Amino acid sequence: MTKLYVLTGGPSAGKSSILLGLEYLRKETVVREAAEDVIKLHQSLGNPRPWELGDFQDRILQLQLQRENSLPNIERVFLDRGTLDGL
Fold first, then answer.
1. Residue 20: CB partners within 8 Å, gap ≥ 6?
2. Range of 63's domain?
3. For the chain, the helix, strand and coil percentages under 3-state DSSP, each to the nearest 5
4. pTM of the model
5. Mean pLDDT, residues 64-81
6. What is the rounded distance in angstroms from the CA atom of residue 19 to the CA atom of residue 77?
7. CA-to-CA distance for 44 and 32, rounded, in angstroms?
8. What is the rounded distance in angstroms from the CA atom of residue 33 to the CA atom of residue 83?
């Protein structure tokens, strides 16, 4: 069974930086923050403020669940935030 380690905290607390180190220096499996990817996707599609969408949090949660449900069966995975952060 895969152990999940979730890094959570406020913006600019260093979560993503720590995870980059784990991924590139220690070759750990990392799941990136879903919110940032949802924002970037919608901005690339022409919406400069996707956080104003009525279902914005639902989109983040959907992507996060998709990522967590498709994890490989390995010893451990580190998550940049998790489903509870979106709720």
1. 30
2. 3-86
3. 50, 15, 35
4. 0.83
5. 92
6. 10
7. 18
8. 10
Report phi then psi at 30, rounded to 5: -130, 140
Residue type, position 7, single letter: L
User: For the segment 9-56, what is each residue's pLDDT rounded down to a tens digit?
Assistant: 888 899 999 999 999 999 999 999 899 999 999 999 999 999 999 999
Give me the CATH number covering residue 57: 3.40.50.300
Residue type, 9: G
Would you tell me how many other CB atoms lie within 10 Å of the CB of residue 10?
A: 6
Q: Compute the half-sphere exposure of residue 12: CA atoms within 13 Å on the CB side of its CA.
A: 0
Of residues 76 and 87, the one with the higher pLDDT is 76
Please give the tally of structural domains in the chain.
Answer: 1
